[in-house]
Each structure stands twice: as C-alpha cells, then as structure tokens.
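Duplicate of #3305? Posting structure anyway:
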C-alpha cells in the first residue's frame, strides 16, 4: 500500500488490515478477475522498483467453498495453473513456486490441488539498465481449471504498473502476504530417498524421516508413477519406507524421482521437496518427464491397449491394419482409379506396369513418412495427436474438398490438368504418368486418414508413445501393408492379362469414378460445417467456386505470352483471396454436442459420478470426419434394438466428440494407447469396475452383449481386447 498517510500508528493499522483482509485490493495489486468460483489478482511485493533488483509477485486465487485448482501434477484429472508473462525488454520471470498440494478426493479419483486462498509466487528480475522515472509494466495472462463436481476452465489478464526509482518501495501489506506464502513452501528434505520395486508395488525408502512422523503422503511430479487414489502406508524399520501402488500406465525414464512429501510431526503439518534415486530396474524406455507446459491430465481407469506390445507385434498389427485399410470406403475410389490405369497398361510391356506399381509404393511411403514426422514433431512439442489429426483443421478439410471436386471434374473431362499432376485417366498408359502414379499413392494416403481399420488402434497407440525411430518403423509397416495390393497386382502379369482390352468402357468407368469424389467433397464440406458452423460452409463453397474459376481461367488464357501472364496473375490473386477468406471464416468453434435421446457430453467426472450411482456407462469417442465412426453409428449405434437394450439396462450413453481439437479427449485416447478415433468403452455400474474396450467395427449384437455384461447380466466385466 502506498504510504501516503503519516504516522507510525496508522502504518501499523494498515499492515494489520492487510493481514486480516487478504482479499482487499492493494495499490500494488492488479484489478481482480472474478467469477462465481474464483477471484484472482496479481500481487506485487513492491510498489516501486529499482534497476537490477529481484522481487516477488504472486498470482492470488481466492476460491469459493468446495472448489479447487490444481498443482503441477494435477493427479487423476485436471490441469495446473499456467502464467504467460509479457515483460519489458531485459526483464525475466522465474517458474511458479508451488505450495504443497493436498489430496482432494472426487470419488473414485484423487486430485492434487488447492482450496481456499492460494498464492503462487514468482520471482521477477528488473533489468539493470532500467531507467528511473519510467514505468515497469507487468503483464500476465493466466489460465486455470477450477473444479468441484464439474470443471470449468477460466483465464485472466493482469496488469501492474510499477514506477522505477533509485530507491525501491516495499508494500508492507503485500510483502507480508507473500512472505507468509513463501514461509510455508516445501523446503528441501535433509535426506535423499530411494525408489525400488516391492512386488507389484513400489517402495519409497525415507532414511532420514523423523521418528515421530505420521500421516505421510508423497506427491510425485511425474504423473505416470503411482496410482494417485491409492492409500500410502508407512512401514517402520531400520529404513522406513512408504508403500505406493504402481501406476497402471507406469513410465519412468529418468533415474531420479522428485516430488513433495507431506507429514505431521508432533501435531505440526510439514512439507518437504524430496528427491529419490530410482532403482535402474524401474526405468522404462518410453517414459516422459512432465513439465509445467504439459497438457491436461485426464485419466480413465481402463487398461491401456497396446502398452504390452513388443515392437514386432506392433509392426505385424500395423502391416495387417494397412492391408485392411484398402477395404475402407475412403480408399476404394482411388484404388479403382489405379486399377483403371493398370487396365490401360495390361497389354503394355511388363516393366512399365511394375514401374507404375513401384512409383505408387513410393508415393505411399513418402506420404506416411511425412505424416509420421508430423505426429512425432507435434508430440515433441507437447501436443497429443494421432491418426487423422490434420482433419481437425477446417482450412485443411476445405482444401481436401476442393481437391476432390477438381479430381471429379477432371474425370468427367471438364478439363485436362495433365498426367504429370494426378496420373488419373489415359495418361497412366504413357511414360508421362510416372509422377501421376506417385501422386496417386500420396492421394490414397490422404483420403485414407478419415478411416481406421482393425488392428490399427493398438499399433498407432504404441507408435505415438515410442521414440521417433520406432514410431517411424510402425508407420512404414502400415504403409507397406497399405500399398501391397497395388504393388502385387503390378507384379502379377497373369492377373493383368485377365483384364479386358482398353475401349469405351474405360471412359464410362472413368467418368463414373467422378461421383465418389464428389460424394467425398460433400462429406468434407459437412465436416467443415460441424467444425465451423455456417461460416465454414460458406468458406468451403467460396473455395470450390474459386478453384473452378481458376481452372477455367487457365484454360481460356492459353495462347500468347501476355494472355498467359494475365491469366496466371489473376489466378494467383483469386487463390490468395479465396485462401484468406477460407482461413478467416473456417475457424474451429465450440462443438455443439448432440444430445439426441439419452446422449450426453463425455467427461471423466461424469463417468465417475455415474459409476458411483451404480449405472453402466457407454462412451463413444468419435469425430465427424471419421468415416469408421459414422459407419458404426449407422450400422449399430442407431439400431432400435440397441437403443431398447440401453434403455432397459439403464445404460447412459456419453459422446466424446473429437471433431475439433480437444486436449482432454486427446489425452484420454493416449491413456488408452490409442492414437485416434473410434474408441468405444463400456463401464460397469460399479465404482471400481474396469471398462471394456469394444472392437473398432461394431455390430448391434456386440453392443447388446457388452451392455448386458456392464449391467451384470453377462460374463465378468474384465477388459476385453478387440
């Protein structure tokens, strides 16, 4: 508080008021960001600063009763508070200095976080060349997740203007509040622990633990170490050890484990930061150390599919999945077009046919390699991505729709874009179709991403959790399986000779193949409408119109150089304008969750609440761009006998819509060893019941049988792998 009042007595009164009423806004405190759940401010221990000094600020969160925010490792669900700083040039901000968390039980989960009023201190360094008389402006954008029975993400922007002076000024009331928060931060433990295996559990040895310590709890920074909801018991002896339940998704890469140990000593609550040496036998190759920037943790208590795979099993599953992917509706039109090209080459030299097959293989391999590189790179940046992730971008969905429309028009003969571009049509019979054969392989991979084949789920889930070299090898196995039918056909002259000679039938068939392309474009525009609403549809139609105009323009401006230059310049301007319009309007919006009948929006908290009520739960992880998902909904989920069975057995249907990017859903998929949708889970109506993972291709009988098991009318509810 600025010292504008004189007198010792008044100064002490102001200090006392600051300590008794911590919610009071001080002169060195930002304007509050308020909601019915949280009042947040940015508090500075200084009301003026000096060049080169370091001082403390704190993000203050005053929480409504029964609501909580989260620690660095949020436990079974949640997301830690994050602060993004915008500071003057040369200034720096340290990491959040986390208070000791408490275990907050939300049956059947346990979260690690804070209730009441929490201060998150951060050290700020003023640059040495800061000039007196100027203003040091602190700006911070903070995000936090606040939960009770439901969870609500919130955010706030905070600004503090602190004058720069030759002598700094301490805001005594603010300093007292921050000092009180710093005083209770966990101090380094005077001993090191040791983590070792103890059968199917873990033992954390605490050789320097005070003899009178009780009520111990260890909060690890790594969220894949222990089951957070499990009890932790202390075994006395020469080396006291805390028994921990090993996580079902256990991963440990670093030889040191860190966290906070809380305990009571002579009735006084204490907390220390603990470092422990991990037994080498506990280390895993695929462990990932958490950081403050990691995405939200959303853990579902089901077995992780693919976690127990070996590299050879993953390669075999990927190869088989790629082979089956050829039968999916996304890919069949492109393969038919390739078969048409082979028919034209059936009576040509054998080497020409083989060359086409090998070029198709190269296109498939390179496309899968690029896709694998994107998955690995985005995963390294902390993004949870997987199969079909690019279709979560509305502009890319619209671009694919435009490509499908242009291919359809080309097949109908509306224009010719040359065999060197697509390799579709008559040019496949000539040497000029080499690049076309290659691009056909690329196109086949692009249109395959909305589909998921059996065996792919476990293989892709395994791949995205492995080091880059292993992940790439799994994607290559998938590519080889995917390309095998076409390559085999190109090397089987006996089969090719069975094809009829080229004739009018090929022209008719080529034109007929245009309509699956138009159908795919219609479906992609519908996906854009789900992602971006009416503006997405408008953007898609404008893009299709612009593409058609550009193709027509290039055709009519052929001839003299001036006409070609004019046409090219105008085409570029139209493409840039349409692209800008598409990007501006095709913006992912909040998914409007369909609630037809008894379908509700998914959340891990809702699953836990329903199980606690004794209700079986069916969870459908889906997306509008997932062809397999839509097929399952039409073939099985929408059947009346399935709806009747769900109703009679009291099954609650939850839908997790991944059409637009959603970190919670992506993390939940990764927890189950899946890299994409569909994923179907059936939870029994019991608090400790394990979920059953259903096959990726559903039938009505499969769903009804799983519903009966979840309701306790069938066989045991242990997880079944498809």
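Output from current build:
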């Amino acid at each position: 508080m600025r010292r504008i009042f004189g007198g010792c007595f008044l100064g002490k009164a102001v200090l006392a008021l600051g300590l008794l009423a911590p919610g009071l806004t001080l002169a060195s405190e930002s304007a509050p960001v308020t909601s019915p759940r949280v009042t947040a401010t940015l508090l500075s221990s200084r009301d003026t600063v000096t060049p080169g000094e370091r001082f403390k600020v704190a993000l203050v969160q005053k929480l409504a009763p029964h609501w909580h925010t989260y620690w660095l490792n949020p436990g079974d669900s949640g997301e830690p508070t994050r602060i993004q700083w915008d500071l003057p040039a040369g200034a720096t901000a340290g990491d959040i200095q986390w208070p000791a968390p408490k275990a907050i039980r939300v049956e059947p989960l346990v979260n690690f976080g804070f209730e009441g009023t929490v201060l998150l201190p951060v050290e700020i360094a003023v640059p040495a060349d800061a000039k007196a008389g100027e203003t040091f402006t602190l700006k911070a954008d903070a995000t936090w997740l606040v939960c009770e029975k439901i969870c609500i993400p919130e955010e706030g922007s905070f600004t503090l203007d602190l004058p720069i002076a030759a002598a700094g000024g301490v805001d005594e009331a603010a300093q007292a509040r921050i000092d009180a928060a710093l005083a209770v931060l966990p101090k380094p433990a005077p001993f090191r622990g040791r983590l070792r295996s103890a059968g199917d559990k873990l033992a954390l040895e605490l050789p320097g633990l005070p003899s009178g310590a009780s009520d111990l709890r260890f909060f690890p920074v790594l969220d894949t170490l222990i089951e957070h909801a499990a009890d932790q018991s202390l075994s006395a002896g020469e080396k006291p050890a805390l028994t921990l339940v090993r996580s079902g998704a256990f991963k440990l890469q670093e030889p040191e484990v860190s966290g906070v140990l809380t305990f009571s000593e002579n009735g006084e609550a204490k907390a220390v930061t603990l470092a422990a040496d991990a037994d080498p036998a506990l280390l895993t190759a695929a462990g990932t150390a958490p950081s403050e920037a990691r995405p939200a943790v959303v853990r579902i208590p089901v077995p992780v599919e693919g976690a127990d795979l070996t590299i050879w099993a993953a390669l075999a599953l990927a190869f088989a999945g790629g082979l089956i992917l050829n039968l999916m509706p996304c890919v069949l039109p492109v393969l038919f077009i390739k078969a048409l090209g082979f028919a034209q080459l059936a009576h040509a030299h054998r080497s020409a046919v083989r060359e086409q097959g090998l070029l198709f293989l190269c296109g498939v391999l390179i496309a899968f390699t690029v896709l694998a590189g994107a998955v690995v790179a985005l995963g390294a940046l902390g993004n949870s991505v997987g199969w079909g992730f690019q279709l979560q971008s509305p502009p890319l969905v619209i671009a694919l729709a435009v490509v499908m429309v242009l291919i359809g028009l080309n097949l109908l003969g509306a224009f010719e874009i040359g065999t060197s571009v697509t390799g579709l049509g008559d040019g496949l019979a000539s040497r000029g179709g080499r690049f076309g054969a290659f691009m056909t392989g690329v196109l086949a991979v692009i249109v395959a991403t909305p589909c998921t084949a059996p065996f792919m789920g476990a293989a892709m889930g395994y791949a995205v959790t492995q080091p880059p070299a292993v992940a790439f090898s799994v994607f290559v196995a998938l590519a080889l399986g995917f390309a095998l039918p076409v390559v085999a056909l190109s090397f089987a002259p006996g089969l090719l000779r069975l094809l009829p000679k080229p004739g009018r039938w090929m022209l008719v068939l080529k034109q007929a193949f245009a309509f699956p392309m138009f159908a795919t474009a219609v479906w992609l525009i519908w996906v854009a409408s789900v992602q971006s609403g009416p503006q997405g549809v408008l953007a898609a139609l404008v893009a299709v119109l612009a593409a058609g105009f550009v193709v027509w323009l290039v055709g009519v401006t052929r001839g003299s150089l001036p006409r070609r230059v004019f046409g090219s310049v105008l085409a570029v301007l139209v493409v840039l304008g349409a692209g800008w319009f598409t990007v501006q309007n095709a913006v992912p919006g909040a998914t409007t969750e369909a609630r037809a009948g008894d379908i509700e929006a998914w959340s891990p908290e809702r699953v836990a609440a329903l199980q606690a009520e004794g209700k079986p739960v069916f969870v459908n992880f889906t997306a509008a761009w997932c062809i397999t998902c839509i097929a399952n909904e039409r073939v099985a989920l929408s059947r009346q006998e399935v709806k009747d069975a769900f109703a009679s057995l009291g099954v609650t249907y939850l839908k997790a819509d991944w059409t637009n990017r959603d970190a919670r859903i992506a993390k939940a998929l990764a927890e189950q060893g899946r890299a994409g949708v569909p994923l179907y889970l059936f939870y029994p109506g019991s608090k400790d019941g394990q979920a059953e993972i259903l096959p990726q291709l559903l039938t009505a009988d499969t769903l009804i049988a799983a519903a009966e098991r979840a309701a306790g009318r069938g066989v045991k509810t242990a997880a079944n792998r498809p």
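Confirmed duplicate; merging threads. The mean pLDDT is 75. The two ends are 65 Å apart (CA to CA).
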